[in-house]
Amino acid sequence: MNTFTLFFLFALSLSFGVEYWLAQRQAKHVADHRPAVPEAFRNSVPLEAHQKAADYTLAKGKLGDIDRIISAVALLALTLGGGINLAFACWSQLLSSPFLAGLFATATVFLIMTLVEIPTQLYQTFVIEERFGFNKSTVQQFAKDQALQLALAAAIGLPLLALILWVMDSIGSSWWLWAWAILMGFSLLMSWLFPTVIAPLFNKFTPMEEGSLKDRIQGLLARCDFQSQGIFIMDGSKRSGHGNAYFTGLGNNKRIVFYDNLVNSLDEEELEAVLAHELGHFKRKHVIKMLVASAVMSLIGFAVLGWLINQDWFYTGLGVSLEQKSNAAALMLFMLVSSTFTFFMQPITAFWQRQFEFEADDFAANNAQASKMISGLVKLYEENASTLTPDPLYSAFHYSHPPAAIRIAHLTAKA
Question: Catalytic site residues (predicted)?
Fold first, then answer.
């Protein structure tokens, strides 16, 4: 067992321990506050809805604990347990081309990781979501979604992976710059294609009908100087009772999307305020900032991999023998373990995202009615069974949106 193996085990134990500790804090805090609705929501959220949200949060938390254990065991099995080494050894024996062997070995590991996650997804959908009245999906729909996702991963992911592996094998020491540029270009292309090519494979998008709601939204878009390729209603209710709204796409391919169950839940002024919030992300350039941050982190990651790829201890320390040492194996190992060493960045990223949410709320308050944003959010918290009493440390580490009480207080000051 080399030094890097010990370092990996320490990092994995630390990240697992911190996550488990935070999850237990969250469970205790939510359970302790279950008996009474928080003061800020006492006149707007019934006790029954508050307790349903607490029970829903606790149920998801218990499943999260199990999922965390399964993920850690799977990671250890694939690395120190020799799973990745075995995959690369088997494909090397089956194929004479090292390039193809590396490509299919990497794809095999990704497939295994996908299959490992399916049992908890099934339990989440057909036990927890069903118990709390959110699941609208069927086993057939679930299977269809999984098959379609795998097909897309093969049709889109395999060519991208093959191109990156070819660059790693052929370009020389500067390969990581080229691979990063390819990945960023691909990400931008997918962001542009997603609204019109990818998303319609999973859901039906119907243009919003003419009427007062559309007129109100178009008035908001005009005030905000926002150009889109249309306003669409998505049939989200065919899978879930949760509601949402978003805009998607880049350049001249932007779309505004409302879940059908959201449209049925909120009044027109509340929908206008929710959309104003989403537009705030665009107008405050949050999308661009996130893309830049992602590009910088990806560049750093590729640079680190460019150094690790030549270090024998990186392979042997993670269960891959020097006989199976390859660029593909290095890429696979790096993608698997990098989150273990960077988990400490989660609260930094979450804090940054929460500041974006405050800015988007401010934009909504300035371009719609803050009071309607508040009432719309309260309805969403209640209907989506979002806990009103998260643990402060847990939410600081994990929440990309401010906790309900803090967010409502911020908006109330703007009303």
Answer: 278, 361
Neighbouring C-beta atoms of residue 295, cutoff 10 Å: 16
Dmax (CA) for the chain in angstroms is: 70
Asked if residue 383 belongs to a known ligand binding site, the reply is no
Q: What percent of the chain has pLDDT over 70?
A: 99
Rounded distance between C-alpha atoms, residue 366 and residue 190, angstroms: 32
Count each helix (H run) and each strand (E run) in the chain, helices first. 18, 4
Place of tokens 């990671």: 75
Decide the pairing of beta strands 245-248 and 255-259: antiparallel
Half-sphere exposure of 404 (CA within 13 A, CB side): 25
User: According to the annotation, is 357 in a ligand binding site?
Assistant: yes
Q: Span 111-124, mean pLDDT?
A: 95
Q: Which residues are the active-site residues?
A: 278, 361
pLDDT at 184: 94
CATH superfamily, with its number, for domain 203-265: Metalloproteases ("zincins"), catalytic domain (3.30.2010.10)
Averaged pLDDT of the chain:
93
Residue 162 has pLDDT above 90, yes or no: yes
pLDDT at 21: 97
pTM: 0.92
For residue 88, the one-letter residue type is F
Please state, in angstroms and rounded to a whole number, the distance separating the CA atoms of residues 87 and 135. 37
How far apart CA 415 and CA 260 sit, in angstroms, is 28
**Does the annotation list 242 as a binding residue?**
no
Contacts of residues 143-148 at CB distance under 8 Å and 24 or more positions apart, as own/partner, are: 145/202, 146/118, 148/201, 148/202
Q: Residue 233: phi, psi to the nearest 5? A: -105, 125
- Does position 1 have pLDDT exceeding 80, yes or no? no
Residue 183 has pLDDT above 90, yes or no: yes
